[in-house]
Amino acid sequence: MPDAHDESVGSSAAAAEAPASRPSGPASAEARTDERRFRYYTVAVLPLSLLAAAAVSLWQPFEGSVHLWWIGPLLALAFLGAEQLGVNVDVRSGISWTISFTEIPLVIGFFVAPFEVVLGAHVVAGVTTLLARKVTGRVLYNAGAFIFEVTSAFAVAGLVKQALGSGPGEMPWLAALAGTLTAPLASTLLAMAAVRVLRRRMRVGTALRLAGRILVVGFVNASVGLTGYLVISKTPEAWPIVLAVSLGLAALYWAYSDLLREQRDMEALSDVSLMVARSGQQAAARPASLGDELGQEVDFGEWSTIAERIKDQLAAARVVLRLRLEPDEPMRSVVAGEELPVNFVRPDDPLLRLPGAHVRHFRITEANPEVRAALLDRGAQESLVVPLRSANQLLGVVEAHDRLSRWRGFGKYDVQLLGTMASHLATALDNRRLLATLRHDAYHDPLTGLLNRPGFRQVAREPLRERVQSVVLRVDLDVFSQVSDALGYAWADRMVMAAGRRIRDVLGPEVSLARLEGASFAALLVGCLPDEAHRIAERLRAQLSAPYPVDRLTVEANAVVGYASTSSEENGHLVDVDTLLQRADMAVRATRGGEEVRGYVPSMGQIFLRRFQMVTQFRQALEEGQVSVHYQPKVSLPGKHVLGVEALVRWQHPEFGRVDPDEFVPAVEAAGLVGALTSFVLDKALDRVRRWLDEGLRISVAVNLSVRNLADDEFPAKVSAALERFGVPAELLTFELTESGVMADPQRALPILRQLHGLGIVLAVDDFGTGYSSLAYLRQLPVDQVKIDKSFVLGMGTDLGDLAVVRSIVELGHSLGLTVVAEGVEEDVARDQLEAMGCDVAQGYLISRPLSEERLEAWLQARTARSLGHHSEIVLTLLT
Known about the structure:
Blueprint: E1 2-3, H1 10-16, H2 26-59, H3 71-84, E2 87-92, E3 95-99, H4 103-112, H5 115-132, H6 139-164, H7 173-197, H8 204-234, H9 239-285, H10 300-314, E4 316-323, E5 332-337, E6 360-363, H11 369-378, E7 382-390, E8 393-403, H12 412-443, H13 453-465, E9 470-477, H14 480-487, H15 489-507, E10 512-517, E11 520-526, H16 530-544, E12 548-550, E13 553-555, E14 559-565, H17 577-590, E15 597-599, H18 603-624, E16 627-636, E17 642-653, E18 657-659, H19 661-670, H20 674-694, E19 700-704, H21 715-726, E20 733-738, H22 739-743, H23 746-758, E21 762-768, H24 774-778, E22 785-788, H25 790-795, H26 800-815, E23 819-823, H27 828-837, E24 841-843, H28 853-863, E25 864-868, E26 874-878
Parallel strand pairs: 14-15, 17-19, 19-20, 20-21, 21-22, 22-23, 23-24
Antiparallel strand pairs: 1-3, 2-3, 4-5, 4-8, 6-7, 7-8, 9-11, 9-14, 10-11, 12-13, 16-17, 16-24, 17-18, 25-26
Helix pairs in contact: 1-2, 2-6, 3-4, 3-5, 4-7, 4-8, 5-6, 6-7, 7-8, 8-9, 9-10, 9-12, 14-15, 15-16, 18-19, 20-21, 21-23
Transmembrane segments: 38-59, 107-132, 139-160, 172-198, 210-232
Domain GGDEF: 468-602
Domain EAL: 611-864
């Protein structure tokens, strides 16, 4: 009959007897609540069953012979044997019933023994089975269930007997059959009630199907027992036939048991794998705390559930999971079932010497003294031990101790199941660790190990949501790009790592610290006031500005720090981390004026609002004629011929007035509108050159290129089309590009430059001498000119170093066959010095400021005279 004394609802009660290693928290609180509810249920079941048994005993006194004293022990042995031949059927995870052969001795008991003897034999056999299986936490409940089963069976049998009108001392076979079928149904009713008490769910359809199957199995068992008794009582010589039928039935049950075992094993494997996968997903989705900076807090309650599932599947008294969830941490143990002795694992435990990946079966009766001592330390008679391995890496160990049925112990099916389960568990663990690694990588910077921007956003969300006074610091190291250009990215990366360590030393390990990009860092100071944040920022700047030893060099660094606090929130609205980062970034940009530590103030937002407005209005400004092109002449040295002009963009904004190019060009470039700007300037410049050509003048025009132009694969084709559209020879167009523009992505820029040079366009390197990579890359660039940066030209008259730099650039350019252009020529002395050095072209305020088209024409008319050149071309000569 089905009862709840194997892996039934009692397993939930056993879970309430949690060992010391069980986790605390919501899961354990729920288990304690279930324990109390189950105790109340047990208190109700046992007394009511005893009262019902007393009533049935008074109602149906035994009227047969009492001299057969051996009937009671024999029935108890029969019940005990039937219990050992049980077949477990899972109903829900952790809920199962045992289909046993107890209907056979029960139906016979109706004919040969009084109610009290049958009841005592059944209770003794059931309790003995529980104690043998070391299931001590459910004895009272199951004792009540045993009493209720037999009591209800004899009550129904008595009612049927009365209905049939049978006389005293007679037991009709129909009454015995009805009573026997009542017992499993009564047990099922109690178990379903226990499911409700423990707040487990079971659909009505599932309950009805289960009751139907139990009734069918009970009917078969009772029929066999009843038939056998009637046949043998009438024909004693027929007992071999009855025995053969019983053995055949037992064989069918064993076959059915194997099928159920395979089904349950597959379900258990799936359950364990899903549990591990879900626990990993929940850990990944769980918000991280500030203390662990998105490190995964291991919830061992999840692993206790997995251990319980393995224990129930193996019908083991105890299962121990030893897990190493992080590569460098020691193993931690999770116990399901009986509590383990304290510090039972020896330093060189023989059960944990696991050279392979197979299950090892240890029995105390077959073990050597060393293994026997290890089993005794665990309080176990036998143990299955299997390692959890992945790519020769030990992830953990699973131990199962003492099968609940001590009549058999662990068998080959248990060994196979645990081995397969360990393989699935190892794979699931490996996937969980991979997920943890991916999650860590998603929220951390691979170079420094600090948080990245998404990780910083995740960490800062909770304190900001709780309106804790906080400050976000942003730190920028200024020399990163120069070091990467001069020495390569490997040395720049070393500087970044060194800067990260310095910041960590100043702020301490508790502060959330992130590398945003390049050499930019952010820190979250929780519970910090703005004045204190300013002092911390000053310390940070001083620490980061100390020289950095790089290989054999010492790099002088400069750090700027900006910060924004939640106290600057407006109208009581919650400020999120992105807003604070944006404000801290504004404060960093505001430090460019001289201060190296700045806190955010609302007025800074107006500057960036103006920049935003300019970007959004730029296309409209192009269409409405607010943007124009001015030209600055370039003359040859020493001939003073006007060779060309440089096209410079100007913007007359209707609201802001004249906007400096240094303000709006970077904004336009950052917004991705530089292509439209370049096309506008190029068209205007080529149109001007075309009109000069129509007048018989060959004046070239120079147009500045952006980094984004050099990243546009279609740019050379666009330029070629423009030259053809205006009918301008390619040699009259010059493109000026900065070193930083080329060095930002030389692998992408160089092919673009070669295509432009192949068209016949003149290429010039602007601001030459300000970068670290000039000498290394100059020979590789397909350029025709170098322009000496005006900072050196302006300083020639007072600084011998600048004078030396200019002379070196002129000599270098000539040695490479390049034309040398000096910009920033504002004095006659500078022009004379450049002429003496052999500089080819001069440009600057001494010659002319940038002029609009109309003023340029007037300038050309007033200061130049037209003469016929060597090739019958009109040239312009500057009048002295």
